[in-house]
Input
Amino acid sequence: MINITIDNERIKAEEGETILEVALKNKIYIPHLCYYEGLKPSGVCGLCYVEIEDFGVKKSCILMVREKMVIETETQKVLELRREKLSEILANHPHACLVCSQREGCDRISCSFEIPKNERCCFKFEWCELRFVSEYVGIRSDTPKYEFENLSMRKEKNFEFNQNLCIGCLRCLWVSSAPFKKISKRKRILVELLKDSSSLDFVRVCPTGALRGDVISLNPKVFLPPKKILELNSKNLKEIRDRSGVYTLLNEKKEIILISGTPNLKKSLESQMENPKASFFTFELCEMYTMRESELLQSFLQKHKRLPEGNDELEELF
Amino acid sequence: MKEYWRWKEYNWHNPEINWKEAEIISCGIDVGSVSTQAVIMTDGKLFSYSSRRTGSDSPDSAQKAIDWALEDTGMGLNDIKYIVGTGYGRVNVSFATRTITEIACHARGANFMYGPSVRTILDMGGQDCKAIRCDHRGKVTNFLMNDKCAAGTGRGMEVFADLLAVSIEDVGEMSLNVEEEPEPVSSTCVVFAKSEAVGLLRQGWDKNKVLAAYCSAMAHRVFTLLERLGVERDFAITGGIAKNVGVVRRLEDELDLKALEPKLDTQIAGALGAALFAKVLYEKEMK
Output
């Protein structure tokens, strides 16, 4: 057993574990894209930096834990470095939709800003790991514009590979244990190596839309950035102001049970205190809350193929 | 100066219904971004409706719409048992008992208007478009909206009518009156399309041709939305643009599918659905 401290929390770890593994195991989220549970760390994405006493800023996916290590996951230095690294990744990956003010609820078919199709986000938008991580890390406003390079696209029997969307995280290669021969200049993967693979696991681990196969929802093994979910209690409601916006109610399993727009978040949430099913909530301020509500419902519908149960109460009216 | 975009506001009531004999009088009010409708139903039958432009003051627009639907009927606001507000401004209907999203109301309204065979509804509103799938009862099973932009919506059409000095009611017919179908304008964005249209007029295109180019761009835009959602028969269109044959025909051509012929005013679908919900809600409350 090794004793370490992460964000002031004392944690016991096993010898040979990396800092990232220990943190995730203990529900401390550190952003990452190339790391995937059970795979060799490659350290290419550079998002998992942490600051360690006496060691400085290091990649947590590579560094093993040592006795009495004191680790901070969100120092100013670390946050800035992560953003810088993300900016390098996004410079070579379409990201116009990620920073668009109208991204929620957009059909991404016709774009009001006339962004060329190749620079828009792909089919995976609603459940894209890269997107969730980017939103968590924060996209720098000086992120270089993505230029479409028309890299190779291949269609195999049971999967497709679009090199334009590849960020070179190498997860697919690790998981398929394909012979590691060819990696092009910018560490982009040549999928020729993979086409004999019988299992589609290498498709499922892709954090972007570069590999597309049979899956249409998020891989449950992926660690996602936490959302600011608050417990529905009077203490938390004190912080909410009398403003318009949209709130989401969650049950005790943290499943969404209602999405609702309201002119007064405080009042509406207070009245939901009596809802026996509601345990947690999230909220966002928004002037156009009725429209925002529809957008969030649309996203939910696309993801779950049904409405949240609280929004489905109309059933009794038919 | 004539304002060509100004569509006519209207109200209607069925003189054959004696509302005093009705058990349940229910009402739906749909406060949209461009227009507001009120529908009053007596025991589930359409009794009266009104349609007005939404002013800068939404609560006031809701009041005016219902006042107008009540006009000359002898009915008063107090005779109405239950009012449901819907539309993006639904919370501004201060006298509503409850609010329901416009998506649910449009599907319910279309079900009443076109019958239970409707499975896909395209609501082309003032500032957005929604493609809705529903079951035989008019309950929403899936939907998709366009982004927040007004491109290719009713408001865009108003701007075009004004630019070309064509009454908005005539836009559709005129756009069909072309010898050859022109290329669609390259953008449905109101601002870009407007400057493109000015350019085309300067090149010597006549008004009909420019309108055809715009209507077909608009039809294509909603076509992509419908394509993504998947169209199941029967297909119906609601909202103001459903009255524009120029857009409807072109969309039908692209879909290779006829939209159902509307039997009622397509603009009242949302308010109609709300009024139908209001009736059921009242009945439940009385139990």
